[in-house]
Amino acid sequence: MKFRIAKMLLRLLAAPQSQATSSAPPSSPDDRATLERTLHELNDCMDLVHRKFPSNGMDVVYFAYLVGNDDLYRDIIQPFSNATVQEAAARLACLPYTEVQNSNVCIDGILEGMAAIFLKGKAYLIRIDEAEGRSIAQSETETVISGPHDGFVENLEQNLSVLRRRIKSSHLKTIELPVGEISKTNVVLAYLEGIANPDFVEALKERIKSVEIDSVMDANMFVQLIDENPNSVFPQFLTTERPDAVASKILGGRIAGFVDGSPSVFCSPTSFFDFFSSPDDYYQRWLLGTSLRILRLVGFLITICFTAFYVSITTFHYEMIPHTMLLNLTESRSRVPFPPLIEALLMETTIELLREAGARLPTKIGQTIGIVGGIVIGQAAVQAGFTSNILIIAVATSAIASFVIPSYIMSASLRLIRFGLIILAGVLGNLGLLMGIGFVIIHLAGITNLGTSYLTPLAPFNAGDVLDTFVRGPFWALRKRPSIVKSSNRTRNKMRR
Amino acid sequence: MKAAACWLLMLVCLAGCTDQRVLEKMGFIRTISFDVAGQDNANMLKVTISIPKSSQNESIVYTTVAHSSKQARAVFDRQNDRRLVNGQIRQILFGEALAKQGIWKHLDATMRDPSVGIHAHVVVAEGDTEKMLSRKYPQGGTAGEYIDNLLRAESATRDIPHANLHTFIRDYYDDGIEPVATILKETPSSLLIDGVALFKKDKYVARVPAADKMYFGLLRDSVDTGELNMDDIRMGKESLPVSLSYIHSRRKIRFSSVKGLTAGTPLKVTIHLRIRGSLLEFYGGEALDNAANQKKLEAGMSRYVEEKCNALIALMQQNKTDSIGIGQHVRNAMKYASWRQLEWDDTFSKADITVRADVKIKDIGKLTRS
B4 or B179, which is more confident? Predict the structure, then answer.
């Protein structure tokens, strides 16, 4: 109920603004852009600057901290300070000055970092904003050994320029869609015309337009607003901070979405297995790339099952343990006062605490946490009879295996699933473990992204795609774009071997 | 969401409500042995179990005399501080006397437990099983570990046919083949593999002596590795011992038409053995790098293998037990209905079985006479 009221309120709030941004109809006299109206709308903003030019009676309004001083001097102060009224009017008639009629457009322009010029009852806008932000640096969450070391930053224009430099094609189209009723964050969809499926572009556009929220802070947050299974634990849009990855996704026929203020870029349509590939796979020889892919899939299995399997065999299936290991394990377990399920949950929680503490703390203190955690968990816990040493191995291995997965968001999801499987294994043994895995697979098969199946190319099966999913085939074998993008232009590589 | 939370809560609360077998609360039986109880209580069974301690070098041995293995188990459970479980059984020992009476009901009781794996060896013990299990051996470890390693090492070289619970039961139920087991004998300082026990259904009827077990292996199946020790091979005039290493053999069974078998026509079977091996031990006087000499030696070895195998087949025919599975081949060549009518044991015992061995020397080692 509350939710519905909030939604209605939002819609009411949204109504006039969306009208303003969508079109500039011949304005009625009462919302013409005038100096008085603008100053009234923006009163009580201490960073607003109102500058008068006595020589020609011109008024200029802008936000001090949004504009660049060089641009301000070049485009406003220098040309107009000594100009007469006729000279000023002649200059304003040319580009880059644009005349605006509507007051809301004028105010939005000022909020975006333009300067508004008022002369003889007419209003003009000129873009003199300055990009603030850090310079391009390597992404800290997705690193590669070899390959390009640049990463996206928070600034949208800078990100788009990085992309344009990589794909110098007139077919690279970009659509701007504002999202967030108050924050007015720009979301830009980039795709290759003639390669990306136009139905997907339309669908994504529609879905982004239907978002009604006050603000959007990050791409990882934004994709949760537009995905098809909002209650699933799995991320459904691949997000990456690497320009080379995004460029290759676009060239593969996918659509990339840039969110202003976020270094992450989302790609669609995404399948589950996209989260297990890294650009590194392509920069290495294909046999190495293939073994890395397989290693990651093994890591996936280990991270969700290993501890659960330990719980299951120590609680129910003692006959599965090799005899020589059995006696050691029994001796180690006999000092532990808890049943295996509680023991495993305790240790997994401890590891998660360590990981979370490491993520929240500055790097320098994070190292201390690592050492303390290593000693406390590695040695003291076993010596104190708190856990068995085999469990330490299982927990540590599954934690390490979870970090093998290139996407941090996916690896966090998998770690959560692990807890469910551990509980099932502790209650029903291997039967429970397999039931749990079955549930996960059923759930995965049910997820869609822009209507495409999450488990492509496994279901629906596509032999050609398997070459670039579970393995990384040699480039001469990767001739087609992935089937998931449903592209009309599927050939990407015509080279004969 | 609420439903999911309910499920989760239920799962957490239910943990521990099922038939748990938490590791440290279990006593793992590694070896179990069955024997007749002796003269005064003829119907009783002597059951011994050995449970390794977690220190690995010691084990707890319990023995009791009971009517059935379940009864014995109840007695052991009353003594042991941990719940006894079958899942880690590695050897099932049967005393010789008991094996002659039939072992099926004891095997059956063990096998029905789904936790028992296929790695459990079936062994016929010559000697007192209780003493065998409670003794200390200089080879180190517990008796169970010693027996396990001994059998594994031996069957790895294919000196003895694989005789674990799985193969034993398979051969027991299968038509046209009879199960076999390994014979273990106690010596003052160790245990000794003393041949292969031939069963007829579940009754121990004959034994292949240790010296002949390799020939039995050749007859029973194709062999990928092993060693053939031959005592006196005739080579020209001399008679000398030869040993063939790393042998590789293929067995082929040919037989006369199966028509009329049910009416009593005798069966003619030929077993072709194709054996290849390295000659690394040779004490003869004649040079071996001579092709003609090698031929002579090969002919002598073939004749020797044939003689040995014929003797083994005679033993099997005498006991009417087809331990090498000729019956399987015959069965596959005829309709099942006529196979059912056939008295295979009689047919086998009366069959005319010849062995044709073809021994070839692969190489004669590094040394040559120049």
Answer: B179
Are B200 and B61 within one domain?
yes
Last residue of a domain, one of A213, A237, A270: A270
Domain span including residue A65: 26-127
Q: Which of B159, B178, B208 is the last residue of a domain?
A: B208
Is residue B95 in some structural domain?
yes
Same-domain pairing of A103 and A226: no
pTM of the predicted protein model:
0.83
Is a pLDDT exceeding 80 seen at residue B210? yes
The reply to whether B70 and B158 lie within a common domain is yes
Q: Is B27 on the interface with A (CB under 8 A)?
A: no
Residues A13-52, buried b or exposed e (16+ Cβ, 10 A)?
Answer: eeeeeeebeeeeeeeeeebbbebebbeeebeeeeeeeebe
CB contact under 8 A, B23 and A327: no
Distance from CA of A221 to the nearest CA of B (A): 21
> What pLDDT, on a 0 to 100 scale, did the predictor assign at position B367?
67
End of a domain among B185, B208, B231?
A: B208
SS3 A418: helix
Question: From the first residue on, what is the mean pLDDT of each consecutive set of 10 residues in chain A (497 residues)?
Answer: 50 45 49 77 83 83 84 81 80 81 83 84 82 79 86 90 92 92 91 93 93 92 92 93 93 94 93 91 92 93 94 90 85 88 91 86 80 78 85 91 90 92 91 93 93 90 88 89 89 80
Q: Which of B23, B25, B60 to mutate to test the interface with A (most CBs of A within 10 A)?
A: B23
Q: Say what the pLDDT of residue A233 is.
A: 93
Q: Are residues A89 and A224 in the same domain?
A: no
Q: How confident is the model at residue B15 (pLDDT cuts 50, 70, 90)?
A: low
Verify that A176 and A264 share a domain, yes or no. Answer: yes
Tell me which residues of chain B, numbers 108 to 167, contact chain A at a CB-CB cutoff of 8 Å.
115-117, 148
User: What does the pLDDT look like over B352-367, one tens digit per residue?
Assistant: 999 999 999 888 877 6
* Residue B138 located in a structural domain: yes
Segment A466-493, tens digit of pLDDT: 888 899 989 888 888 998 888 888 888 8
A65 and A122 assigned to the same domain = yes
Closest CA relative to residue B324, chosen from B216, B224, B250: B216
Q: What are B291-304's pLDDT values in tens digits?
A: 888 888 888 899 99
Say which of B18, B28, B56 has its CB closest to residue A318: B28
CA–CA distance, A385 with A108 (Å, rounded to integer):
65
d(CA A206, CA B365): 81
Q: If you count them, how many residues does chain B have?
A: 370
CB atoms A319 and B15 under 8 Å: no
**A444 and A299: one domain?**
yes
Given a contact cutoff of 8 angstroms between Cβ atoms, the answer to whether A175 and A208 are in contact is no
User: In the predicted model, what is the mean pLDDT of residues B282-286?
Assistant: 72
The answer to whether position A78 is within a domain reads yes
Whether B142 and B64 map to the same domain: the answer is yes
Q: Which residues lie below 8 Å from residue A72, measured CB to CB, with a gap of 6+?
A: A62, A115, A128
Mapping DSSP to helix (H, G, I), strand (E, B) and coil, where does residue B358 land? strand
Residues A302 and A433 in one domain: yes
Domain containing residue B340: 213-370
Q: Is A206 on the interface with B (CB under 8 A)?
A: no
Q: Residue B224 has which token pair? A: 């990928």
Q: Verify cis geometry, omega within 30 degrees of 0, for the bond prior to B138.
A: no
CA dihedral (A475, A478, A480, A482) positive or negative: negative
> Do B98 and B125 lie in a common domain?
yes
**Structural domain count, chain B:** 2
Q: State the Cα–Cα distance between residues A94 and A146, nearest whole angstrom.
A: 49
Q: Can you tell me which residue has the tokens 């008295």?
A: B343
Q: Do B54 and A331 touch (CB under 8 A)?
A: yes
pLDDT at A456: 87
